[in-house]
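Schema walk-through. Below, the input block comes first and the output block second. Nothing else is stored per chain. Lengths vary across the set, and this one has 261 residues.
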Amino acid sequence: MSDFFAYYVNTSNSPFWSFAIHDGSRINPVLKDYLKLNDAERFREEDPYTGTIAELPINKFIVSTSRFQLDMNRTLKDAIYLHPEQAWGLSVWADLPEHHITTLQNEYYNVFKEIETLIQRTIDDHGYFVVLDIHSYNCRRSGPLEEVDHEANPQINLGTIYNHPKWQSLVQYFKTSIHNQTYLSKPIDIRENVKFKGGYLSKFINEKFGEKGCVLSIEFRKDFMDEWTGEPYIQHIMAYRQVLMNALTDLQEYNFNDATG
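--- output ---
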């Protein structure tokens, strides 16, 4: 980790990883004078509390720097929001100096180099890997009183588009595990590739290591918070973490030897 881009890695003796690359809201102090958005404007498009959901007893990669500084789920071209069309129509930076852009681009390369090293080490140690790539998404775009369209907005959207076809049975196994659980005593609506299909983190990992593992890009609808005020619903957040804990227990029973042998 550098002083410019903040994240932490916690490794354990596990083939499983949880990533929360949009959890953070930190902006490096040297960049704040160029930032045009206030904290609330940024917070709405960040994925707050996903780092809490990702606090699982497995390997962890949690980013505390805001995606508005550097978005690790985008290609390098779009990872720095220099134009409104890259950031939901928001104007993010006021004349961000070229040397800061270069520093951010170097950070981008360094972080992905570290991710590559970590996944390779996991493969060396266990023969396979599974990444839980944890995100959230807004479902009340027009205002806080908007009725949620549940048909168009799954409670959990599972992005899998970049995974090797050999892992489709594992994806189904994971979905079944979620379906067999409840969330606050209610059935869970999990669907595949409806709202989101997986971002650049998934593409990067799968292109390099797709024969040895896969990425489950998990987008939670922001039912666990007030997406307009940012107020967290702690019971809901902890319930989602428990759902993933239970799914991990089930995944440990999956026969990875058939797929990796």
